[in-house]
Amino acid sequence: MFSAVAEKKRIAVVPGDGIGKEVIAAALEVMKASGAPITFTHFDWSADRYLKDGTTIPADGFAKLERDFDAVFVGALGDPRVPSNIHAKEILLGMRFRMDLYANVRPVKLLDAALCPLKSVEPSDVDFTVIRENTEGLYCDVGGNFKQGTADEIAVQEDVNTRKGVERVMRYAFDYARKHGRKKVLMTDKSNVMTFAHGLWQRVFKLVAPEYPEIQASHMYVDTLCMQMVREPRQFEVIVTNNMFGDIITDLAAALQGGLGMAASGNIHPGKTSMFEPVHGSAPPLAGKDAANPIGAISTAAMMIAHLGLDSFAGKIEAAVLEAVRQKKITADVGGTLGTRRSAEWIAERAAGA
Ligand code: NAD
Ligand code: IPM
Ligand code: MN
After folding, report:
1. Which positions are catalytic?
2. Strands 143-146 and 184-189: what pairing?
3. Quick one: 352 exposed, middle or buried, by C-beta within 10 A (0-12, 13-18, 19+)?
4. Residue 247 alpha carbon to ligand 2 centre in Å
5. CA of 279 to the centre of ligand 2 (A)
6. Which tens digit of pLDDT belongs to each residue from 87-138?
7. pLDDT tens-digit profile of 241-270?
8. Half-sphere CA count of 348, side-chain side, radius 13 A
9. Are 183 and 214 in contact (CB under 8 A)?
10. Which end of the chain is less enclosed by CB atoms within 10 A, N or C?
11. Ligand 1 in contact with 19 (CB < 6 A)?
């Protein structure tokens, strides 16, 4: 039976570097204002911590996140003082790989026609979701250099694609389409050239798609997809692809929404502690200027609390964001005049009252 007082959801917060810290503070304020039953525990894993004591993520970090938290909320990682980006790799890619967060879900939704760089496009024309494989591909760090530094140097980076990994992310995409009332799933690859790796994607897609007869399955090469995303974005509903292509096409897709500052994402393994982060990075030149757009992080927060079953609070936040965009209570990158903090305050007030 239900207890009288609902358990609060426990969220681990990793603000990270640069504007990550500012947009996370903004999103926390909005989540609190929404009244969602959640608690926050902060972790200082970042370039600052790495430069102080060499820690990227403590040895028990991933186990702790999985054991003690319902979700993880991350800002961004990347700092010019750490040229190797080793901390970002170990923390961010570490969470994706070690926590096996195999589906990177990146919704692409235009909130206002004025934000889209395309001509004659309405918000309903840009409304699709990219499901990016998140634990394999070119991100596996398998490869090496031979005769490094010589004129004969050879560099090899392997593209790792497993039958199980490809199949589970495709099923995730079809299940996502079902759950969200979508009728189309498109798989994109470069199987005309990457015959081995993406040949596997082709074969698995043909096996999985017929299990979802009500959903129209189609395929496009990734170069054509980039062209079509700009020419006719309304044709897309759910796109499933590999790790690297998913990374690249979601920056392009972010531009359709008004820029990187608008884009949200979740790194998900159904049934396990999942991680949520805006698509953008730490934007070092913007950091500390109260200029970063907080909407990507705030929309990510809404996605996270919806994932935790708190849909009504997520709905309040989404409505407040939409109103902020309509009333231009937004930052300069999307045509407003407010700073990060003021924009977040406005959205928080609205989310509290909505
Ligand atoms: P970036 O996303 O930080 O910035 C790219 C461009 O978008 C810049 O012009 C920046 O000013 C703008 N931008 C990004 N977020 C914005 C926001 N919220 N509001 C307004 N403008 C915004 O990408 P980059 O410059 O290629 O990378 C900077 C660092 O961040 C690198 O170290 C990179 O590795 C890292 N990075 C981290 C993540 C992550 O943690 N998820 C993602 C991408 C890049
Ligand atoms: C993203 C980022 C990361 C990626 C980087 C920072 C490793 O670009 O989340 O899109 O390539 O996945
Ligand atoms: Mn990226």
Report:
1. 139, 190, 223, 247, 251
2. unpaired
3. middle
4. 6
5. 8
6. 999 999 999 999 999 999 999 999 999 999 999 999 999 999 999 999 999 9
7. 999 999 999 999 999 999 999 999 999 999
8. 17
9. yes
10. N
11. yes
